[in-house]
């Protein structure tokens, strides 16, 4: 009753490894696309002096660089658990997400500084047509990367990869904003370029807020309460389970682990109670998305005057609400 029960652990490990491998493939390809996109934009920045395009280029380079810590995290996540890191290395993804948030914040500060400086001392933007073309290139590259990262990130349950995808999507829309700056400059309003640069900075800050919130939730082991509700329904429907007790679920990288208490008939033998616990874990693994392992603790429901946890009364944590 107190021992974790496993269910096809080799298959679950293979699935987790394949998820990490997919994440690494996504990052490698998107890194290449964004580096080419940013390099093309950098050439136009040197030709034109557009501060709006500079902000967009810096953001694209930052987005490309965030693939590096995330790829390292996916690689670490494939390593087997050890006696020191008993849950494995999946939390490296959350640390990579923190690095992504810091990089995005740094790109916002730099882009905002350049925009304010140019707003104070406006300069003429040259090669306006090339600036507009670079904005379109930035949008196309970032939107492709965003769709790719978001789709795979949601499929494998990686909050860090989803945050990176949101980052790329905002880069795409800020690239379109460069067109407005180029249009204003072409019409004889050089101040339009730094104003668009400030708008881009604001957009980066919005993405920063969403990405930081997502990463914070993972670092604090937060889960969607609906996931707990679903797990409780699965347990309640398991034959032999009288009711579900405490249910805890936490993310480890892009998989989840659970610790649950169930109440069973106190007349059951140890073997029968163990069978109920195994069936409960079996159902959880099959029906709760991305659940890799569960520890199931079975409590007897009686006799009515018995307190089976009396020695632990001063040490029990409060139940989840």
UniProtKB/TrEMBL annotation:
Record protein name field: Cation diffusion facilitator family transporter
Membrane-spanning segments: 26-46, 58-76, 96-115, 195-212
NCBIfam families the UniProt entry points to: CDF (TIGR01297)
Location, primary (coarse class): membrane
Membrane topology according to the record: Multi-pass membrane protein
Pfam families reported for this sequence: Cation_efflux, ZT_dimer
Key word Transmembrane helix present: yes
SUPFAM superfamilies according to UniProt: Cation efflux protein cytoplasmic domain-like, Cation efflux protein transmembrane domain-like
Family statement drawn from the similarity comment of this UniProt entry: Belongs to the cation diffusion facilitator (CDF) transporter (TC 2.A.4) family.
Source taxonomy: Bacteria, Bacillati, Actinomycetota, Actinomycetes, Streptosporangiales
């Amino acid at each position: 009753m107190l021992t974790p029960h496993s269910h096809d652990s080799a298959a679950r490990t293979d699935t987790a490894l394949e998820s990490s491998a997919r994440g690494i493939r996504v990052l490698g390809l998107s890194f290449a696309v964004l580096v080419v996109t940013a390099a093309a934009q950098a050439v136009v920045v040197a030709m034109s002096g557009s501060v709006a395009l500079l902000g967009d280029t810096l953001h694209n380079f930052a987005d490309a660089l965030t693939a590096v810590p995330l790829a390292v995290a996916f690689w670490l996540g494939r390593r087997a658990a050890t006696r020191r890191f008993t849950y494995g290395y999946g939390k490296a993804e959350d640390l990579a997400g923190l690095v992504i948030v810091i990089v995005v914040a740094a790109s916002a500060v730099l882009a905002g500084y350049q925009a304010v400086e140019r707003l104070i001392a406006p300069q003429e933007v040259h090669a306006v047509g090339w600036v507009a073309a670079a904005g379109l290139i930035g949008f196309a590259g970032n939107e492709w990367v965003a769709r790719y990262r978001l789709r795979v990130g949601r499929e494998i349950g990686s909050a860090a990869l989803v945050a990176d995808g949101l980052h790329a999507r905002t880069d795409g829309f800020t690239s379109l904003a460069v067109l407005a700056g180029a249009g204003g400059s072409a019409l004889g309003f050089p101040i339009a370029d730094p104003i668009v640069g400030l708008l881009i900075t604001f957009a980066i800050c919005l993405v920063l807020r969403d990405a930081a919130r997502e990463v914070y939730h993972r670092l604090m082991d937060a889960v969607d309460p609906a996931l707990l509700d679903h797990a409780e329904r699965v347990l309640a429907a398991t034959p032999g389970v009288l009711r579900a007790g405490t249910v805890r679920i936490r993310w480890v990288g892009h998989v989840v682990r659970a610790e649950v208490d169930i109440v069973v008939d106190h007349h059951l033998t140890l073997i029968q109670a163990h069978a109920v616990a195994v069936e409960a874990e079996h159902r959880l693994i099959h029906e709760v998305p991305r659940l890799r392992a569960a520890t199931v603790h079975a409590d007897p429901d009686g006799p009515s005057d018995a307190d089976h946890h009396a020695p632990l009364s001063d040490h029990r944590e409060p139940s989840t609400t």
